[in-house]
Design brief:
- The complex is a heterodimer of chains A (246) and B (514).
- In chain A, the strands form two sheets. Chain A has a four-stranded parallel beta sheet with strand order 2-1-3-4.
- Chain A is α/β, with parallel strands linked by helices and 246 residues long.
- Chain A has two domains: 117 residues, Rossmann fold (3-Layer(aba) Sandwich), CATH 3.40.50; 107 residues, Rossmann fold, CATH 3.40.50.
- Chain A is 50% helix and 11% strand.
- In chain B, the strands form two sheets. In chain B, strands 1-10-7-4-2-3 form a six-stranded parallel beta sheet, with helices on both faces. Chain B has a four-stranded mixed beta sheet with strand order 8-5-6-9.
- Chain B contains 23 helices and ten strands.
- Among the domains of chain B are: 256 residues, NagB/RpiA/CoA transferase-like (Rossmann fold), CATH 3.40.50; 60 residues, no CATH class.
- Chain B is of the alpha/beta class and 514 residues long.
- Chain B is globular and about 90 Å long.
- In chain B, helix 3 packs across helix 12 and helix 16 crosses helix 19.
- In chain B, strand 5 and strand 6 form a beta hairpin.
- The longest helix of chain B is centred in the first third of the chain and has 23 residues.
- Classes of the chains: A alpha/beta (246), B alpha/beta (514).
- The interface between A and B is large, with 76 and 76 residues.
- Chain A: It holds the Pfam family CCG.
- Chain A: One of its GO terms (molecular function) is oxidoreductase activity.
- Chain A: This is Fe-S osidoreductase.
């Protein structure tokens, strides 16, 4: 299948490793990946902060960039949710944007949805002999309703030792601009999430969203907790021949 | 943490004319949420109390909600009934007025808090009494009725156990259902021992912090009040339009004492509390207890219709309160907040509320519902109200548990748009505008990414200015050597040459169309 990658601005700028892992993984599974270069950002930060007009412009760019794609992969739960859940609220009913969103949004997937629902695979042939705890990010959990898809993918990874995360469904406290507008509450939530992550004894905390991991990972790093964070794509891309290091 | 707290006033000590009634903490002049939240998250005792309490109620709710197969249907029914009622609110309100009047009650209309307080004060004064007992009520808290009555020399006695704790300690409520949730039992024992005597029957000498002993002390203290007070003031959880019946749900039976023993009963009811019929009410009698206290059925559900000769209060007044509600109704996105049945499930599940407690929200309506209701009822002109829509990480846990499906994150974002549309916030608007410009051009973004990568070794661990809000508690990620798009041009291009090639006009989109 030909998959259009919407890498997302955060991954593009700060976590290219995640994008590269996605490409490696999909190639390994025999699929073609295209990267429409006019893509930038889904507009989530602007939308969630009340800057609707800026978000609309970025939404227009997104739907034009990906209009002809069969499927779009956004390796970020919150960006995929932005398109599927919030884009329909952005255009005036019946407007060009509104119609374009109605057409495109159902074809936009998070990585675990793409693999499990579209490509019909739960064992991607990955190998990652490490202890891992999975944090289900809020938008993946409540907006995309990813359910057990990420767990099913992870549990089929060779050599993996999955640990259960206490308080898994609770928000890590990132929340986009919330992290800087309410830094004390955000830090309190982040420190609880970090504590629960460390308590699993796992080497790696995994999620489907690097922005949440930037917050949790930054907290762990500041606490010198010695625990790494990795996007799901990086674990699924890891093989015996090309292992990812935690 | 409750500013504007003054020393408690023993009842009977009448305020002299012109003197502001002492002994009543109010939410007036609370600092904006981030500031109030900062001191709250530093209070480890309160954090401990709240973690324990919200965790317990959360677990109970979860258990009794998950045992019902038809919960999603019930939730949809609750939402639909409320929406239909709100669409025809004018009709139902008139129907209610007619039915209450026919049953021997009197209906009063109050446009705002001042009008409602004036009506209630006048009604109490007409009875010649100077003491009233109160059933736990959010509407009367919202209009600060106790403070208004105190100005007129009338003492209002809270009879709900948690409200009693708050009143005795001259504190502020911090939760809709459990106003003293921020207190633990050791603190409650201290409050009872120190303060009960100046309000009535004192606490026993050797009061322990055993919940049973604390409840018994409150029981003895309140019993005298129930037997001697001739006027009661309540709110209502629901008002049934077709029969004119009021409905109050409570757990202690103290509310029922107030609703049955006094001669005069005055109920202050928000206009959104209406349900058309008893069969509509049935849905909410299932939704509310499970969502709020985590019980299958509510322990004390009191209903009354006007007056019944020789049985219960012989005079009944209902004050129908607007106080900003019709403005909320006019907002097509925000109006869903009027569906709220005050169950508190959103508070108990909210990770922000659990860490800040209720006082930080500067209103009797704290937590996620408060963050959308308070700015809508009061407007977003002041800094405190304008800060509330941002008191959320938009995690969506509140929407998930709401028994009437209020999409709180949607309304939060809607209110943020309202705040942004106001003057001010210049630095943020400039930054967001710049980010919007940068992100709306792939070449601009590419250039910025190259610049960041070139300067990656210069990024300091701790940033000055606004960025310190991040780096005070978190490390920032390392900027990579190159962006993904830069890598793709080299590596990705090698594998799929026909799909690469950046170029063309900044605003043209042909690069993306295939």
């Amino acid at each position: 299948m030909r998959i259009a990658l919407f890498v997302t601005c955060v991954n593009d700028t700060l976590y290219p490793r995640t994008g590269q892992a996605v490409v490696r993984l999909l190639h390994r599974l025999g699929h073609e990946v295209v990267f429409p270069p006019s893509q930038t950002c889904c507009g989530q930060m602007h939308y969630n902060s009340g800057y609707r007009r800026e978000a609309q412009k970025l939404a227009v760019r997104f739907v034009e960039t990906f209009a002809d794609a069969d499927v779009v992969l956004a390796p970020s739960g919150s960006c995929a949710a932005m398109v599927r859940d919030n884009y329909p609220r952005l255009g005036e009913p019946g407007s060009r944007l509104d119609r374009a969103v109605a057409d495109l949004a159902p074809r936009v997937y998070d990585l675990s949805e793409l693999l499990v629902d579209v490509l019909g695979v739960t064992d991607v042939g990955a190998y990652f002999p490490h202890t891992v705890a999975y944090h289900p990010t809020c938008h993946g959990l409540r907006l995309l309703k990813l359910g057990d898809r990420p767990y099913r993918l992870l549990s089929n990874v060779g050599g993996i030792d999955l640990r259960e995360l206490e308080g898994a469904t609770e928000c890590c406290g990132f929340g986009g601009t919330f992290a800087v507008k309410n830094p004390d509450v955000s830090a309190a939530m982040g420190s609880d999430k970090a504590r629960n992550a460390v308590a699993t004894g796992a080497e790696v905390l995994c999620a489907v969203d690097n922005s949440c991991l930037m917050h949790i990972g930054g907290t762990l790093q500041r606490q010198r907790a010695g625990m790494k964070t990795l996007h799901l794509a990086e674990i699924l891309a890891s093989t015996e021949q090309e292992p990812a290091t935690p | 943490m409750s500013p504007h707290r003054s020393t408690g006033r023993a009842p009977g000590a009448q305020p002299s004319s012109g003197e502001r009634a002492a002994g009543h903490a109010t939410f007036m002049g609370m600092p904006p949420f981030p500031e109030a939240a900062k001191s709250a998250v530093e209070d480890s005792q309160m954090r401990h109390n709240l973690r324990l309490a919200t965790g317990t109620i959360r677990g109970k709710r979860e258990a009794v909600v998950s045992e019902l197969d038809d919960w999603p249907d019930l939730r949809q029914a609750g939402k639909a009934i409320k929406d239909r009622t709100l669409r025809h609110l004018d009709t139902y309100l008139e129907q209610l007025e007619e039915a209450v009047t026919a049953a021997g009650g009197t209906v009063h209309w109050a446009a705002d808090a001042d009008e409602a307080n004036e009506i209630v004060t006048g009604l109490v004064q007409a009875t010649g009494e100077s003491d009233v007992v109160k059933v736990k009520s959010m509407a009367t808290q919202e209009i600060e009725l106790n403070e208004a009555l105190a100005q007129a020399g009338i003492t209002a006695y809270e009879t709900d156990l948690a409200e009693l704790i708050v009143q005795l300690s001259d504190d502020l409520p911090s939760h809709i259902l459990v106003p003293a949730i921020h207190r633990n039992r050791a603190e409650i024992r201290e409050i009872f021992r120190d303060r009960m005597a100046s309000w009535g029957v004192p606490a026993p000498e050797e009061l322990s912090d055993d919940p049973r002993a604390l409840a018994e002390a409150a029981r003895v203290h309140l019993r005298e009040r129930f037997l001697n007070t001739k006027v009661a003031i309540s709110g209502a959880n629901f008002a049934v339009a077709d029969t004119g019946s009021m409905v109050v749900l409570e757990s202690e039976g103290n509310g029922r004492m107030c609703l049955t023993l006094p001669q005069t009963l005055i109920s202050v009811v928000g206009i959104e509390k209406i349900v058309p019929t008893w069969s509509d009410l049935e849905v909410f009698l299932q939704l509310l207890p499970r969502s709020s206290t985590g019980e299958r059925m509510n322990p004390y559900t009191s209903t009354w219709t006007g007056v019944t000769p020789g049985d219960g209060p012989q005079e009944f007044h209902v004050v129908l309160l607007d106080n900003g509600r019709t403005d909320v109704l006019a907002d097509t996105v925000g109006r869903q907040a009027l569906r709220c049945i005050r169950c508190s499930a959103c508070l108990n599940t909210c990770p922000v509320y659990e860490r800040t407690g209720g006082h930080a929200y500067g209103s009797v309506y704290p937590g996620p519902i408060g963050a959308i209701l308070t700015p809508q009822l009061r407007g977003t002109a002041s800094e405190t109200e304008a800060s509330l829509p941002y008191a959320s990480s938009l995690c969506g846990a509140c929407y998930e548990v709401c028994p009437v499906a209020i999409d709180i994150p949607e309304v939060l974002v809607h209110l943020r748009e309202e705040v942004v549309a106001r003057p001010g916030h210049r630095a943020e608007k400039a930054a967001m505008g710049a980010a919007g410009w940068l992100l709306n051009g792939e070449h601009r973004l590419d250039t910025a990414q190259r610049a960041a990568s070139a300067a990656r070794s210069l990024v300091p661990r701790r940033m000055p200015g606004p960025a310190s809000a991040w780096t005070d508690t978190r490390d920032i990620p390392e900027v990579p050597e190159e962006s993904f798009r830069s890598w793709w041009r080299r590596e990705g291009a090698a594998e799929a040459p026909e799909h690469t090639g950046d170029g063309g006009d900044e605003d043209a989109q042909e690069g993306g169309r295939r």
